[in-house]
């Protein structure tokens, strides 16, 4: 026993090109010659999602002997990413991806990224790289809030100080969009074709949003340049989907236990989807060879995901928080919550989702439920519930508007809003406090407390609900849901609702 306790553990193998053949046998690693790869893509925003999603799809192509002239050069415009750059360069830009599946964990090393540009004021290295005609796609994951949009119009905001600066200082811009416009200007002057601008952020119409910003900034700097960008540059819309948790001590311990010393590992669920328009002005990798869906119906896929997956997250997060549950998997293991999600998804959301070819709504609803049940993914209720004022506004409230317009069922949607209001009141059913979890929490909290006795006050938050507050049918359903939650609690209210819709559970 003592001998076993004191026996030294085998040290994990440092990740790098020189040590790939020394990794444990169960770790898959690139079979292609990384030294022979040449760049074709600059990607800005080297977070976990990009490395588990877009970089992985390209890696799959390279494993088939394809797209070896499309390797990724990473970039960032945030000085706080310098440590991440150092970590990735120290291991030759390789990443260990760990798939978290309840049936077992597996891992592979992805090698489609070959460099990470220096992060400098003025972004000279980034502009220089994007000016190179070998770069045919510039892609981004800069988060939903990184597009300099006017909060009211959701359009490009030319009055923003950073946009004003970049328009006047294209040789030394502050933002990624300024750097892109500077590189496009240089390529135009040299007579080179432009690169495609591809957003990979989780935004409906992400290509159109990116076009609005890049064309708007180019026009602000030089109207002739703006016209050229509008005519020559492509901005394909796309939909991306994969649950990728943040990397913390647990994830680092997991990769160490697998025998790899990776300073920037990524964990992910056993599901990925990428849907995009086939609109590229300088060519593209053969994405269709690795199950990327190329279609002119991206909006339908976006709407399905936004309303059934993102909306589904909000529908279960509030009752889960009120019941003191920690993870989404625990929420789905609570029958009343799982039943509530299924009934609302099938009967009140699906009728307002565009048809996606080959993907029946019920099939997608079952897929979402299975993904939410994945206990290997430690996706916290608090993370999912965060910023409900944006997430309900984007994913759930538009469905309510459609249901009202159609005269369709909406009792479950009303209950989802009553649950959100109850959560924002700040007290769980066990009496514990719910900590602030929204950028406008103070306003939500104050209104939610008053709405427990006067429900209409919650709907009068017209910045979220607009004319919904004037609909008597929805207001009655909402008030009844608030009363039930206050009188009999979360579980009984959910169970009673599900019992009234028993056929939808089967």
From TrEMBL:
Domain Mannitol dehydrogenase N-terminal, residue spans: 40-288
PANTHER family per UniProt: MANNITOL DEHYDROGENASE 2-RELATED, MANNITOL DEHYDROGENASE DSF1-RELATED
* Broadest EC class assigned to this enzyme: oxidoreductase
Q: Does the keyword Oxidoreductase apply?
A: yes
* Mannitol dehydrogenase C-terminal domain ranges (all copies): 298-485
Keyword Oxidoreductase found: yes
The organism sits in which domain of life?
Answer: Bacteria
Which gene holds the coding sequence for this protein? mtlK_1
- Name under which the protein is recorded: Mannitol 2-dehydrogenase
What are the coiled-coil residue ranges? none
Q: Which GO terms describe its molecular function?
A: mannitol 2-dehydrogenase activity
Entry keyword set: Oxidoreductase
Q: What is its EC number?
A: 1.1.1.67
């Amino acid at each position: 026993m003592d001998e076993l306790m004191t026996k030294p553990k085998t040290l994990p193998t440092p990740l790098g090109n020189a040590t790939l053949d020394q990794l444990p046998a169960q770790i898959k690693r690139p079979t292609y010659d990384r030294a022979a790869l040449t760049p074709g893509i600059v990607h800005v925003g080297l977070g976990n999602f990009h490395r588990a999603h877009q970089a992985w799809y390209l890696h799959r192509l390279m494993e088939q002997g394809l797209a070896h002239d499309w390797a990724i050069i990473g970039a960032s415009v945030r000085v706080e990413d310098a440590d991440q750059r150092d970590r990735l360069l120290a291991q030759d830009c390789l990443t260990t991806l760990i798939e978290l599946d309840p049936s077992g964990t597996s891992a592979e090393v992805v090698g489609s990224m070959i460099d990470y540009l220096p992060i400098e004021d003025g972004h000279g290295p980034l502009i220089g790289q994007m000016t190179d005609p070998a770069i045919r796609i510039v892609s981004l994951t800069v988060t939903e809030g990184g597009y300099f949009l006017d909060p009211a119009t959701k359009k490009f905001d030319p009055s923003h100080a950073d946009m004003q600066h970049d328009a006047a200082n294209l040789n030394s811009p502050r933002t990624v969009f300024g750097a892109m416009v500077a590189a496009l200007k240089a390529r135009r002057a040299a007579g080179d074709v432009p690169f495609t601008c591809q957003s990979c952020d989780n935004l409906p119409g992400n290509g159109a949003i990116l076009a609005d910003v890049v064309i708007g900034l180019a026009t602000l700097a030089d109207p002739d340049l703006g016209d050229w960008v509008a005519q020559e540059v492509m901005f394909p819309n796309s939909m991306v989907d994969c649950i990728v948790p943040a990397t913390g001590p647990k994830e680092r311990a997991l990769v160490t236990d697998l025998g790899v010393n990776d300073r920037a590992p990524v964990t992910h669920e056993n599901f990925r989807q990428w849907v995009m328009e086939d609109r590229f002005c300088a060519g593209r990798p053969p994405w269709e060879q690795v199950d990327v869906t190329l279609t002119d119906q991206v909006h339908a896929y976006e709407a399905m995901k936004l309303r059934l997956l993102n909306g589904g997250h909000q529908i279960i997060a509030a009752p889960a928080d009120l019941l003191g549950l920690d993870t989404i998997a625990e929420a789905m293991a609570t029958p009343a919550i799982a039943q509530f999600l299924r009934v609302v998804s099938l009967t009140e959301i699906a009728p307002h989702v565009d048809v996606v070819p080959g993907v029946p709504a019920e099939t997608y609803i079952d897929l979402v439920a299975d993904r939410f049940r994945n206990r290997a993914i430690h996706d916290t209720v608090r993370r999912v519930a965060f910023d409900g004022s944006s997430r309900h506004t984007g994913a759930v409230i538009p469905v309510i508007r459609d249901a009202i317009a159609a005269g369709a069922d909406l009792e479950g949607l009303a209950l989802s809003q009553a649950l959100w209001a109850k959560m924002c009141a700040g007290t769980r059913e066990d009496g514990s406090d719910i900590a602030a979890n929204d950028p406008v929490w103070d306003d939500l909290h104050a209104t939610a407390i008053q709405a427990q006795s006067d429900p209409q006050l919650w709907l009068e938050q017209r910045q979220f609900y607009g004319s919904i507050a004037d609909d008597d049918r929805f207001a009655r359903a909402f008030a009844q849901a608030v009363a039930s939650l206050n009188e009999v609690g979360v579980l009984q209210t959910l169970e009673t609702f599900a019992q009234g819709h028993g056929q939808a559970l089967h």
